Amino acid sequence: MDILAFGVQADEKPLIERAFAGRHPVRCLDVFLSEDTAPIAAGYEAISTSVNARLDARVLQSLAAGGTRMIAQRSTGFNNIDLETAARLGLTIARVSSYSPYSVAEFAWTLAMAVNRRIVRASNRTRDFDFRLDGLLGRDLRGRTVGVLGTGKIGEAFTRIAHGFGMYLLGWDVAHNPSCVELGMNYVDKDELFARADVISLHVPLLPSTQHIVGRAELASMKDDAILVNSSRGGLIDTDALVGELRKGRFAGVGLDVYEAEAGLFFLDKSLEAVEDDTLARLVTFPNVVVTSHQAYFTQEAVGQIVAATAENVTAYVEGRHTENVLVPAPW
């Protein structure tokens, strides 16, 4: 069965081709799936999509009309997919239920350290042969308090690194992770975590219940010199409220690998275009903010696991098997 893969990054293409080799012919496109590009999939029974694909009702209807019956998304999150419409149209939807948690956890700490030690500002200065230390004063992490929202596999990996730094551990989740408790984590309510933590990192999925889990009230309760990191989903933070707090001169640093309006922006080159997103344009001007383009997962290990699972999802569909990765089963 021929497969069409949308939104394939240059570094990702050889990994996808290797994963599908000997299984199914695969055609890789660098364009992302949207209402405009969905007709390209006509004639392909199975397609693969990236995390920033837009799979709303209109896109799914277009895909189904073109003969697509199976969609294998190369990500864990699936808040971008209208699952009810997919089921009604008889589309099989599969995702990647897990991959290396260390990729995201390590990158979250990379962001935290970058804003704490002013790495981006320091690097820009030295490129201009400005070697002053003014404005580059950071803080030791040892003995400070970290707050981890979401203590699943990624949150646990993040916590283990924090434990290595010698930090006090606060956690919030619907269920307590015994491994985090063994490390010394104290589970508290969300309000207490925001008020006490020096570093806060988000590792929860984007659900209706977690949309803007970091809103005006939570941001207002944080310490003025706290560090906030989000490497999960952009919709967890009320970005307008965050910009409002940053304009007041608050927070030692904010590291964002995701943005709630990133679709149509991230993974693309917009350097020659006028910036239409006023919120993002304002956000990147703050000297204590670092924004990256949803790259926390982007390691050889994690991407390798993602594409291998994607290839297996397609093979399972062809063979009539349902796996743990299936979100909407085939209507057999």
UniProtKB/TrEMBL annotation:
Gene Ontology MF terms in the entry: D-lactate dehydrogenase (NAD+) activity; NAD binding
Q: What does the record give as EC number?
A: 1.1.1.28
| Domain D-isomer specific 2-hydroxyacid dehydrogenase NAD-binding span(s) in chain numbering | 110-296
Boundaries of each D-isomer specific 2-hydroxyacid dehydrogenase catalytic domain copy? 8-327
Spell out the InterPro entries in the cross-references.
D-isomer_2_OHA_DH_cat_dom, D-isomer_DH_CS, D-isomer_DH_CS1, D-isomer_DH_NAD-bd, D-LDH-like, NAD(P)-bd_dom_sf
**CDD domains linked:** LDH_like_2
Is the keyword Protease in the record? no
Q: Which PROSITE patterns match?
A: D_2_HYDROXYACID_DH_1, D_2_HYDROXYACID_DH_2, D_2_HYDROXYACID_DH_3
Any Pfam family matching the protein = 2-Hacid_dh_C
Q: Is NAD among the key words of this record?
A: yes
Q: Sorted alphabetically, which keywords does the UniProt record give?
A: NAD, Oxidoreductase
Q: Which family does it belong to?
A: Belongs to the D-isomer specific 2-hydroxyacid dehydrogenase family.
This chain's protein is named D-lactate dehydrogenase
Q: Which gene encodes it?
A: ldhA
